[in-house]
Amino acid sequence: MSVDAVAGPPQLEGIDLSDRDFWVRPPAERHAVFDLLRRESPFAFFAEPEVPLLAPGPGYHAVTRYADLDAISSQPTVFCSGQGAVSITDIPADLNEFYGSLISMDDPRHAKIRRIVSKVFTPRMLEQLVGSVQQIAEDVMDAARRKADAGDGAIDVVADIAAPIPLRVICDMMGIPDEDRALILAMSNIVLSGGDPELVENQDDPLTAFLEAGMALAGVMERLAAERLERPTDDLTTALVRSEVDGERLTHSEIASFFILLLVAGNETTRNAITHGVLALSEHPEQRARWIADPSLTRTAVEEIVRWASPITWMRRTATQDGELNGFRFRVGDKFLLFYAAANRDPAVFADPHVFDLARDPNPHVGFGGHGPHFCLGAHLARREIAVTFRTLFDRLPDLEVTGEPDRLRSSFVNGIKRLPARLTGAR
Amino acid sequence: MSRVEVDRDRCVGSGACEALAPMVFEVDDNGVLAVLRAQPAADEVPDVRDAVQACPTRALALAE
After folding, report:
1. Where are the alpha helices (DSSP H) in A65-129?
2. ipTM of the predicted structure?
3. Three-state SS for B64?
4. B57: chain A residues, CB-CB within 8 Å
5. Cβ of A119 and B19 within 8 Å?
6. What's the first-to-final CA gap in chain B, in angstroms?
7. Prediction pTM value
8. CB pair distance less than 8 Å for B57 and A372
9. Is residue A352 helix, strand or coil?
């Protein structure tokens, strides 16, 4: 960042959440903007970002107060997801459903389809996974150690720790063969790239890159689904291909989109939570020391990392009728972006919201979504992965030291970090 | 005697309740929440209260 870019306090009229460059600004700057919006203009209206080949829509309201966000989340019939939850601009209905799957679907269909996989993500089922998550975390960290030892000690927190752990966990759960996993990671990065120029080369046509990535993921799925129909196993892919909703099998395209959702959501969110956690612990060494000394802090520590990171910055809802919410009058068709990152720093709910406090309790953050039917399906899994990763990190890589600035993803949707340079000092 | 009530239209089987009060709640193999003890024992009530509080879809109530 150049020196003259150091900004004074933000001004309301200068704010544009649709400006992609805003999303690579340092977190403190972005949070200062959210604080101002929350205080002065809690339903601020913005024009939509331009997306090549798609018609621009009417604009959206940015929801930054916790109470408003949670009220919208918990009234899914008034504020629906079916017109698009992961894209600001309306995209053609078939693409919307394909890429959003459950996320961009309303009840009753949403509930029925969610039930197919919800049983796999319950605490009881995940209990059986603990051992394997532990093993994966140990393997990944031992590999990071070998890489550091073979070179000058340098590693990348993202590529060497935070990406491979969730990738292996979700691919194991879905039964993806080893040889397909590099492709899965690369394609899910593109799907959630937000058009970041490093991941999408042709900046005039990000949509095509996005579609091609989806097709590549669907290609892996097609082969695997055919295999599982013939020889069922106990993995998630088998559950998907064999499940029925209202006596009907899921269609080919429903299975493909579900598959993409699980892979992408399982990879990108936990990875960023872990990376942000490593960065936050490096910036707050006293908190790190406290957690290392007291493993019983893990429960609240994991929640605080999710609040702090808010890996998904927003989801969209669309009003299905005219109405009023906490004094704000809205019209049918109005779009709302629920800024989880902003609600998670709302001083009306969180004391000292900009303080990173691993013992924060209660911590009713909305990092997994607000109250309502779309609450994160993978929340239990994510908590487990984060807990195991950090305890294993303290055990296996206690000498990890962050050595440089994070390289941030230029996306409003995913609070992503592409690289975080670090080294293993060898000191114990 | 306190009694657990589930709003079936709201429940999505997230299992948040099961994580906090596994003696009382279990998401079954069809992804449907089973209430194992509709009238929890006195020493289970605090956990059940936490579970009601934690439900992401506000589908639970404890009538006391």
Report:
1. 66-73, 93-100, 109-118, 123-127
2. 0.90
3. coil
4. 74, 371-373, 375
5. no
6. 6
7. 0.94
8. yes
9. coil
* Structural domains present in chain B: 3-63 (3.30.70.20)
d(CA A164, CA A150): 19
Query: Cβ(A98)–Cβ(A257) under 8 Å?
Result: yes
CA–CA distance from A363 to each of A31, A253, A350 (Å)? 19, 38, 8
Whether residues B57 and A119 touch (CB distance < 8 A) is answered with no
* Predicted local confidence at residue A7, as pLDDT: 57
pLDDT score, position A297: 98
B26: chain A residues, CB-CB within 8 Å: 122, 124
Per-residue pLDDT tens digits for A192-208: 888 888 888 888 888 88
Rg (CA), chain A: 21
Cβ-defined contact of A119 to B22 (cutoff 8 Å): no
- For the stretch A183-195, what's the b/e string if a residue is b when 16 or more beta carbons lie within 10 angstroms of its beta carbon? ebbebbbbbbbbb
Question: Could you tell me the domains of chain A?
Answer: 3-424 (1.10.630.10)
Return the bridge partners of A414, or none: A312
| Radius of gyration, CA atoms only, chain B | 10
Give the residue from chain A lying closest to B31, CA to CA.
A119
Residue A188's closest CA among A256, A266, A109? A266
